[in-house]
Write a structure and sequence with these properties.
The chain is α/β, with parallel strands linked by helices and 326 residues long. The chain is 42% helix and 19% strand. The protein has ten helices and 14 strands. The strands form four sheets. A six-stranded parallel beta sheet has the order 3-2-1-4-5-6. β1 (5-10), α1 (15-25) and β2 (36-41) form a beta-alpha-beta unit. The longest helix is centred in the N-terminal third of the chain and has 22 residues, at 98-119. The structure holds ligand NAX. Residues 10-11, 13-16, 41-43, 46, 87-91, 108, 129-131, 133, 155, 158, 187, 237-239, 242 line the site of ligand NAX. One of its GO terms (molecular function) is L-malate dehydrogenase (NAD+) activity. Substrate binds at residues 92, 98, 131, 162. It holds the Pfam family Ldh_1_N. Keywords: NAD, Oxidoreductase, Tricarboxylic acid cycle.
Length: 326
């Protein structure tokens, strides 16, 4: 339509946003006929850097980019937002325990939630990227009960994409030929990238991946540690690939997708994961933000301990986060 959609991005002067904003400004999410407004939120010390980002956005000269708002006031940033991408979070410093990270981020996401519920569009769709992403989404939902919990998801698409790309490389096919990869659970080291049903060009991929034993000893840890490997090599965490995963996630979720993808959504009890956490499941996206968790996949004796471990971690995070918020 001609009416611009308003997209809010928090942490807009950070490194993921530097890769994400040009994609949003040039129609890589909603296509080349959908104008967008960008509302950019940062904390006061980053406002000068944000101003530089805004200059560069203007200099893209994108015909789709209408209003740009740069602010450190969440009420201004979230006003009338149709889509909110929460990238901003307190960063994990060396030696920081999970509890310390949670105690910094719980207040940020609680505060943002209450403001969003008041000023965002009534049909707002929210993607949480900032870590701990799954638990931040849970906290956000608890603090904004007027926003349907299905409208709040967290990003595990980067882990999913990493897994699809690995299958494609091992099987010598393009990623368009890869299906059946599922990324279960938390966006953390306990994530379970599941290759059991992965196919490349319609054929099972597990043999090319080295068989079940090699998958357990090498392939799963390779994906679980991929983020750390990027940090080690680049001296900075994944940004380009995270930005693309955000676009992929939002495109599947808001526009629709023929393929099954992985998304952290509120658990409905499927696969024995109790309600109360945002768990990455295989989902079928029906368009316009509608999705359903794919049920009925067989969970093998191999997969079960992985799924239980990542669920246990999410419930432990949930307890800690709720204790902090009280
Ligand atoms: P950066 O540190 O480069 O950028 C984060 C930005 O957020 C900073 O500019 C900071 O000033 C801003 N910020 C902090 N608190 C804020 C607040 N209360 N309101 C608004 N802005 C605030 O980090 P970057 O590499 O861009 O990563 C951002 C987040 O994504 C991190 O939490 C990171 O751990 C997480 N990631 C999550 C991924 C996922 O798959 N879910 C993958 C990529 C990434 O690691």
């Amino acid at each position: 339509s001609d009416k611009p959609l308003t997209i809010t991005v928090t942490g807009a002067a950070g490194q993921i946003s530097y890769s994400l904003l040009p994609l949003l400004a040039t129609g890589k999410l909603f296509g080349r006929s959908q104008p967008v407004n960008l509302h950019l939120l940062e904390i006061p010390p980053a406002m000068s850097a944000l101003n530089g980002v805004v200059m560069e956005l203007q200099d893209l000269a994108s015909p789709l980019l209408r209003n740009i708002v740069q602010t450190s006031d969440p009420t201004v940033a979230f006003r009338d937002a149709d889509v909110i991408i929460l990238v901003g979070a307190f960063p994990r410093r060396k030696g920081m325990a999970r509890r310390d990270l949670l105690s910094k981020n719980v207040p940020i996401f609680t505060g943002h939630a209450q403001i969003m519920a008041d000023v965002a569009s009534s049909d707002v769709h929210i993607l949480v990227v900032g870590n701990p992403a799954n638990t931040n989404a849970m906290i956000l939902s608890r603090a904004a009960p007027s926003i349907p919990s299905r409208n709040i998801t967290a990003l595990t698409r980067l882990d999913h994409n990493r897994s699809c790309s690995l299958v494609a490389r091992k099987c010598h096919v393009t990623t368009s030929k890869v299906e059946g990869v599922v990324m279960w659970g938390n966006h953390s080291a306990t994530q379970y990238p599941d290759f059991t049903r992965a196919t490349a060009g319609g054929k099972p991929a597990i043999h090319a991946m080295g068989g079940e034993e090699t998958v357990a000893s090498e392939v799963i840890p390779f994906i679980q540690k991929r983020g750390a490997s990027v940090i080690e090599a680049r001296g900075a965490s994944s940004a380009m690939s995270a930005a693309q995963a955000i676009i992929d996630h939002l495109q599947s979720w808001l526009i629709g997708d023929d393929r099954i993808v992985s998304m952290a959504v509120p658990s409905d009890g499927s696969y024995g994961v109790k309600e109360g956490v945002w768990f990455s499941f295989p989902v079928r996206c029906l368009g316009s933000g509608e999705y359903e968790i794919v049920t009925g996949l067989e969970i093998s004796a191999f997969a079960k301990p992985y799924i239980d471990a990542t669920a246990d971690e999410l419930f432990a995070e949930r307890e800690e986060a709720i204790a902090i918020s009280q």
